[in-house]
UniProtKB/TrEMBL annotation:
GO terms for biological process: nitrate assimilation. Residues 15-422 form the Major facilitator superfamily (MFS) profile domain. The keyword Transmembrane applies. This is NarK/NasA family nitrate transporter. PANTHER family: HIGH-AFFINITY NITRATE TRANSPORTER 2.3.
Length: 455
């Protein structure tokens, strides 16, 4: 298979990127559709908040737990075959959701439909196999922008649900929230057919002859687990907030579902569409600088968002009370800060996956699969943590306190690791770790690590 002489990419790489991004966008929409469908589902089945979030969380769980084997399988047999399988299986599960008649059945079907979430590690491995190191960060960023699919249901859902409520189509297709999964099923099948017809017939399979044990060997590296924690912060929290924010806006600010969906989209769009920019920044200035930017911005924004509305009451010796430090965040300040968090996440998601092909170029499927799996599992656990903490404290803002803790831990681990590597490497990397002409050592933010020097 020949590389294009001008772009140095394999012929057909553009088709792979386009088709995989469309497929991932659609499957991401299906994976997180319960963020909006959950509101009418909660009313119909009379569910509590934790019961509702179990539906979303089970879909996220199944869309995360198979990312490692899915990524490895894409490396072994080709991303095209695995992606087509996910599209067809997701269509079947999506249709079944429309005919759920009880809460236990909804839990089972939400779990099954969530399987499409594993398309992320498949697409990462598939695109990585078709792109050179020079363009890989940008290509993976473009593919990852398919996260914007999380906003699809939020845009089309409320209007379709309201416009079709109580109707029945062709004698069997129910209206209301139940018609949404059927629409998605049709689109999933159409996308699978498009991949079969348009994608390169001969796929690029980088690990076709590699033993499973050899593919799993890099997972012993502590860096893989560190990257996974980063991905919990920038992707797991993204998934959690995508599902959590509609209810947050409705319950905490009193807006209607349509408005809540649109406001949530102001978080989803930057967190998704800035991913190509994050890939370009990582290619141009380095993934580590992008990660520092992400963590610092998220920490400041979450520090404000986690503050509860109210005031401090002082009980004076004479029996009187004094109210101090009144605080009440406005809707638009909240939206702005969440938008900023989304921007930082969009940059950070691309930066995390820029690390992987740089440090583990021959094991993108397995390493990317594990990082994606643990990041996705964060998207399973965080909504439950958000929901139960809100139940215990009565404060919706407690979710951002939890997120701030994860961000602080990730930033501290990253900075400590980089500082320790510089200290141990300074004896033979002095020329690389010093600024030209000044003799002043560069900071851990800008100086290259030994792995980056070798790469």
């Amino acid at each position: 298979m020949e590389a294009h002489p001008a772009q140095h990419e394999l012929r057909g790489s553009g088709r792979v990127l386009t088709l995989s991004t469309i497929a991932f966008t659609l499957m991401f929409a299906v994976w997180l559709m319960f963020g909006i469908l959950g509101v009418p589902i909660q009313k119909e089945f009379k569910l509590s908040n934790p019961e509702l979030f179990w539906i979303t969380s089970l879909a996220v769980l199944n869309g995360s737990m198979w990312r490692l084997p899915a990524g490895m399988l894409a490396d072994k047999i080709g991303g095209k075959k695995v992606m087509v399988f996910l599209l067809f299986s997701g269509a079947v599960a999506s249709v079944a959701v429309s005919f759920a008649s009880s809460y236990p059945m909804l839990l089972v079907l939400a779990f099954l439909v969530g399987f499409v979430g594993n398309s992320f590690s498949v697409g990462i491995a598939w695109n990585s196999a078709w792109y050179s190191q020079r363009r890989k960060g940008f290509a993976l960023g473009v593919f990852g922008a398919g996260n914007v699919g999380a906003s699809a249901t939020k845009f089309i859902g409320p209007a379709i649900i309201a416009g079709t409520a109580g109707a029945t189509y062709f004698g069997i297709i129910p209206g209301g929230w139940r018609v949404i999964p059927i629409i998605y099923a049709v689109l999933l099948v159409a996308t699978a057919v498009a991949i079969l017809l348009v994608a390169p017939k001969v796929d690029h399979v980088p690990a076709s002859g590699k033993p499973i044990r050899e593919m799993l060997e890099p997972l012993k590296d502590i860096r893989v687990w560190r990257f996974s924690l980063y991905y919990v912060v920038v992707f797991g929290a993204y998934v959690a907030l995508s599902a959590y924010l509609p209810s947050y806006y409705v319950k905490s600010f009193g807006v209607d579902l349509q408005t809540a969906a649109l406001l949530t989209a102001t978080f989803i769009f930057p967190a998704s569409l800035l991913r190509p920019l994050g890939g370009w920044v990582s290619d141009r200035w380095g993934a580590r600088r992008a990660m520092y930017f992400t963590f610092f911005v998220m920490l400041v924004a979450c520090g404000v968002l986690m503050m509860p509305n109210g005031h401090i009451v002082l009980h004076n010796p004479n029996g009187s009370q004094t109210a101090l430090l009144h605080y009440n965040i406005s809707l638009w300040l909240f939206v702005l800060l969440v938008f900023i968090v989304g921007c930082a996440m969009g940059i950070g998601k691309a930066a995390v996956f820029k690390h992987i092909p740089t440090y583990f170029p021959d094991n993108v499927g397995s390493v990317g699969g594990l990082v994606g799996m643990l990041g996705g599992l964060g998207g399973f656990l965080l909504p439950l943590m958000f929901s139960y903490t809100q139940e215990w404290t009565g404060m919706w803002s407690s979710a951002f306190g939890i997120l701030a803790i994860f961000v602080a831990l990730s930033l501290a681990w990253m900075h400590w690791t980089i500082h320790r590597m510089h200290q141990s490497s300074s004896a033979h990397l002095n020329d690389l770790l010093e600024r030209p002409h000044t003799g002043v050592p560069s900071s851990p933010i800008t100086a290259p690590t030994p792995e980056e020097v070798r790469a």
